[in-house]
Each structure stands twice: as structure tokens, then as C-alpha cells.
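Help! Submission page says 'invalid entity' but I think these are all valid:
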Amino acid sequence: MTKIFDIRPVLDDVRAALDQNDLDGATSLIAAIHPADAAAILDELEFQELQDIFARLAPEQGADVLIELDSDSQLELTQSLTQTQFSDLIAQMEPDDAADVLFDLEPAQIEATLAALDPEESDDVRQLLSHAEESAGGLMNSHVVTLRDRLTAQQAIDLLRQLRPEEENVYYLFVVDAAERLVGVISLRSLVMAPANAPLASIMDTNVLTATVETDQEECARLLSRYDLLVLPIVDDERRIVGVINADDIIDVIEEEATEDMYRLANLSEDEDVEDTLFRSSRRRLFWLFVNLPTAILAAWVVSRFDGTVSRVTALVSFMPIIAGMGGNAGIQTLTLIVRSMALGEVAAGQGLRALRREMAIGAINGIAFGSAIAVLGMIWKGNPMLGLVAGSAMLLNLISAAVAGTVVPLTLKFFHIDPALASGVIVTTVTDVTGYACLLGMATLLISYLV
Amino acid sequence: MTKIFDIRPVLDDVRAALDQNDLDGATSLIAAIHPADAAAILDELEFQELQDIFARLAPEQGADVLIELDSDSQLELTQSLTQTQFSDLIAQMEPDDAADVLFDLEPAQIEATLAALDPEESDDVRQLLSHAEESAGGLMNSHVVTLRDRLTAQQAIDLLRQLRPEEENVYYLFVVDAAERLVGVISLRSLVMAPANAPLASIMDTNVLTATVETDQEECARLLSRYDLLVLPIVDDERRIVGVINADDIIDVIEEEATEDMYRLANLSEDEDVEDTLFRSSRRRLFWLFVNLPTAILAAWVVSRFDGTVSRVTALVSFMPIIAGMGGNAGIQTLTLIVRSMALGEVAAGQGLRALRREMAIGAINGIAFGSAIAVLGMIWKGNPMLGLVAGSAMLLNLISAAVAGTVVPLTLKFFHIDPALASGVIVTTVTDVTGYACLLGMATLLISYLV
């Protein structure tokens, strides 16, 4: 196959089966496909239908599907199960998946669920739950194969055959000393390729990149991406390995973080998706539009201060959309560049002043270009050179203020440990609206005798 | 280490060495660190300094660093080398890295470089170059280990020991039949864990997800992400394996594609980064602001059509920023949601009408909420109920038009195989500006007798 499995035909079949009350038929359609696709179909159904089908899945299948459901359905489904049903599902999962599902639940429910697991498993999950959800600790898989450094390659392979570790992706094996401290890494490939009697200490790579449980998941993503790693070991303060993060876990993180930044730049709630109910979506958008309203009214108030000027020189009004529009556009350009560069780790702390100087210079160059264009337009269109000069100067000043706002707002938010993408767009366009209108109408008021 | 290597202290040391004309000292500082970090430092230097240090690196180091340089420095450096120097560097690289470096060069230079490679290597690279840069073919690594299905686990391991394949990340081994067609996959882990005499055919997984060389890299990213794969095999029309894509290659693709969408939504050139020269950045931003100019002038022209109304009811001007601003904001919300959902594969073709109905309903709900708020504001602030009614109705109509434009523009671009993020923002805000001003001032003109 060359495409992601197209869920629509199966979804249609499932709906047809449900219409005929053929729950077993619908369930067997769902059970036959990949859990990720099954979850995508279940997310499209009414919750009651989802629940009916889910109840008929075998426990292992149910566990695989539950992990893949979107977070709203997952939570709702979790709350509709009995404690025993839920504990049985959790017992089927790898510790990191179990922790992911448990993260959003009430402490009492988490405790009841952990009590039903076998002690070793529940310790692993409890350990994972103790870390922040967006940290390396919250993301890592705690099943790791470690090998003592004094083993030979063949002994290590024999040991692996005997252990038959269950977890996926044991492609890098971590080598530890007598005190269980991480001293090196060896790829399963190098282990297989090495002479059978070579000790691990002689074939391992001692230069291991690690992160700690507190490392932010974005920082982990940058490490994997920058150094092209397939796996990142997570260690405690004594350099004992407590888990690993795989590249495929990080793909989801990167998509999530990019979506979050993009949505926040557009004043959208990052939880919104196209499958939300109308009511939930409206409420979420309303919130952000509501945040925007006072700032729009602020701009309106600035304009209203110049009623007298506007009533005498109506032609000024035509320039308002141009100056505010171009300023807003330039401000969002700068803002997006800075926010994305910070996310990718290209603009580090302490480089703010350099970025500001750079953006102001670009704003000034572009401001002179567009200010001149608008000035000429004003002279020709309205036949008034002074009007052109006022509009052109307002454009220049507004493009510089756009550069300043686009740089300073995200850097300031970051300084206070607030996501730089959050609400930056509203603030930046408010600054450009207010500055643009104030410059245009203010200068016109001062020079009113040359304009009428 | 828990952080990405901080290049600044080393950069300072390198600069200090360069200031004392100690080129060898600077070079040994660079040679001592990871190629990705070395490249990050070189990208910060003047091109002449970069060139001087690069010339002193050993060929293998030079090759590793060249791959990691940003695309502008890479191209400039490539063009400053003699053909022999360049060919020697390319000969050190894996075929996929070599193809990446060659992609942007002139055909004549590519030919001269390939002619200097050994024939097998040059065939591999030529094959990769024949695919589109953003397709699976352009991204894949063509060195793949394949094993015949009739080998036993131990024979396969012995064969691997003997072949000692050079390439990284041989964690999945692909099993082929006598005609070299892909019939299954086995992880190196399963191979090591399996009984020594088990034939591969009995332990392999026959359910292999594949892509073809033409598959778009975004589609490959979605496959890896949805099914949590660490590697995706790429096959030709006869299902013969021609390459693999690893999860760590896809991390860069996902970051690139997200950056591209974000920049395009903000009318930024996706090539821009904070390290560009001022002139290059200004020119790139000017282009997009220039695209925006005619649309801003269109909005200005619409406003100017109502000069008569504006001069009689100056209070209308105060509402212009609110109605245009809120409309633009709502339009960008819808646009970003739709563009990102398309990128993540959540809104498939054929679901456009459903998305449109949904967005229009949200626009209408929010339009009624904000239209009422603005109407009340208008009555209280300006003491004129009819003015409030006109402003409120304009707000309602503009939020619905924002929903329509935010949905229809990206879907239409996609239909014509244009990136939905490209220029969508400019079009959507033009629609909301023009609709907002036309509704507000048009209704005011019709109802002028009640307003003055």
C-alpha cells in the first residue's frame, strides 16, 4: 500500500451494520484493521455506538484501540467503564501507554487502577506518572534492556535470547557498570556484527547523549533531530538509566508542538479539531475573539479621538485599511519568524537584542519602500502631496512599530515563562492598529491646515 | 548532558582564535565537536572564515560538516571548491546525503561529480537524483540489507557478520523471494531472539507497510506517525525494495513542513531564517508585503466609494477597525484550522462541504454573539440605536464571510494542487476587509436618513 488506509469505506460499512443493529458485524469490521485506523473510525461514531463496539472487542484489542482514541473520547470511555474493566485494559498496556491513559484521571481512580496491577508493573507506571506530562519522564518508555560491560558479544546475544524482552524497538542496548551507571551504548547491529568473544566494553560507544526525566519534551525533540538519533536514553542523577525515548514517540511530539504554536498564533485553542461539536468549537473560538474585542475597541477609540480631523479630511479614511493592514501583516511576519525560531532552538536566550536590531532594520527598509509607494499613491489618487506625505510617514512608522512588537512581545512572554505564541498575535495587531491610526490621524491633525 | 550542546562558548573561542590569525587553532576546536554543532558554528562565521576552516578539515570530517551546513552556505561553499575537492567530499558520503547535496547544483556539475565516483555508488546517487526532492524517492536511503526468505536465523546472522554493512540503523531486515520481491520484514531484535534454526519465512512479519518512490514525503510522515513505525520501506512497481526511510529522517521533514505552513500562513518565505542577511530578508518580506498591497488598496478603494456617507456620519469610522479586525481574526482562525487539518490528513478530499457547513454555523453563532455586543456598544457609545444595528449586522455578515473564505480558499488552492497555506492569509483578510467595510458603509448609506 502507498497510502494511509482509507477509513471511509470501512466507516460506511460500519455505519450500515449499525443501522441494521448488527453490532457483531460492526465489531468484526473494526477488529480486522490496525488499532490506529479502528480508533479513527470509532472517533467518527456517536459515543453510544463507540461504547457498544468497544465493549465487544477482546481486551488486548480494546487496550490497543483505547490508546489511539482522541483524548476526549478516551476520557469519556474511561469514565463509562467499571473499575474492573478499566484495570483489565490497563494491565494489557506497556507502562508508558498506561501512564498516558492515566495522566488525565482523578487521583482516586489512578490509585484504584494501580492497586489492581501486579506490583512491579504498578511501580513502573507510578514512576512515570510522577513526572510532568510534557517532560522526558512523562514521555519515556521505562522498559530498557541493560547489559553489564564485562559480557562478551556472544554472551550478550545469548542473554538477550534468554530474556526475550517483550518491548518493541530494542535496537540500542545500554551498557552499565557494576553500580548500574550508564557507561556506553551499543547498537544491536554492532553487537551482531562484532567478533563473538569481544567484550562489550571494547565495542561499545562511550559517547552517549542523554537527557534527564525533567528535560522538556521539546528539548528531547531537538536533541533527536539535531543529532539524528533513533533513541535517547533518560538517566537519573546518578546516571542510572530509567527509560528511553524513541524517534517515533518524538514524531507525535513535534506534530503536537507545531500544531499548538500554529493554533496559538491564529488565536485558536490547541484542543480544537475539526471533529469537535459545534457548541464546543464556538465556545472555544468565542473565547479568543472575546480576548480580541477590547483591543479592537481600543483601536476604535483611538480613531474616535480624531472625529474632527476625519470629518474635515474624509480622504484619510481610505488610507486606514492600507496602513493598518500592511502593519499587521508585517508584524505577524516578524512574530511568526521569532516564535518558530525559538521553537526550533535557533534564537536562544540572550540573542533578543540582536534579533530586535535586525527586525527594526528590515522594518525601516520596507517602511521606506512602502511609505514612498503610499506617498506617491496619495499624491496621485487624492491629488494632495501633503496627504501622501502623511500617509507615507504613518506607513514607515507603523512598519517599524510592527518589527518592534513582533520581536518584543514573544521574547517578553518567554522571559516570563509563558508560551511565546500565546496571545502574541492579538497584542501585535493591536499595536500596529493603534500606532498606524494614531500616526496617520495624529499627523493629519497637526498638519490639518495643509490638508483641507 | 541534558541540553543541546551550547555552541556559544566554542564560537567565542573560535572567533578569538581567528582574531589572532590562528586558523589551525580554530580548526581543531571545530574538528573536536559533533559535525552538527561544527556546522552550526561555521554558519555563524563570515563566509571567508568558514571557507578557511573547512579547507583544513580532514575529508571525512568535511563531508559530515558539509551535509549539516544550512543550504545557502552549502551551495556557496560547493561553488568555491575545485571539482576534484568537491568530488572527493561526495565520495565520502552515503548516497542519500550525496544526493541531498547535489540536488541544487547545475546538471553539468552533477555529471562531473558523478563521473568521479565509483560506478556502483554513482548509479545509486543518480537513481536518487531522478526522484522529486520532496518525494519518498528523494528522501530515502538506498542502502538496504535484504535477506532471502529461505535462510535460517543463524545463517542470516552469519551473513550479516560477513557483510558488515556500513550503513547506520539496519534494525529492520527485509526478506525477499527468489525474484527479489519484498515478502516480509524481520526486526534485528526478532532475528537475534529467534531459535537459531528457524527459517526467516517462519519468523518474519508478512504484513509490511510500504510506499513507492513517488509517494509525497508528507504522506510518508503520516504513515510513520500513524502506525508508529521506525522505518518505512520504499518499493518499485514490482515490489522490489529500492530504499528505506527512517523515523529520524522524517523528524526533519515534519519540522520543515510545519515551518513551511506556518511561514506561508504568515506570508513569509519558507527559506527565510534569522541568520539571513538583512538585504535578503528585506527582499523576501517586501515580496509578500507587495502581494498584500493591491488587496489593501482594494479595501481602501471600497472605503473611498463611501466618502459621502463617511463625511456625514463620522462615527462610522470608529467601527471600521472593530469589524475588519474581528472578521480578519475569525477568518484566520478558520483558515489555520483547515490548513493544519489538511496537513495532518484529518480533512480529506470530499469533506469540504461538511467543513464549510460546520464553519458557517460557528461563524453564525459567533456573529450573533458579537453582532449583538457591537450593536449594544454602538447604542451606548454613540447614542444611536440604528448605528448599533448597522454595525452589529455588518459584524454578523463579516463573521459568516470569514468562515466561508477561511474554508473555501484553502480547499480551492488544494483542488488546483497549490499549497493551501500559500497566499491564503492575504486572500482571506482581503475578503473580510472588503466585506466588512462594504456591509458597514453600504448599509449605512442605505439607511443614511436614520443615522444623521
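Support: the input was valid. A stray whitespace character was the problem, and the output above is from the cleaned input. The mean pLDDT of chain B is 86.
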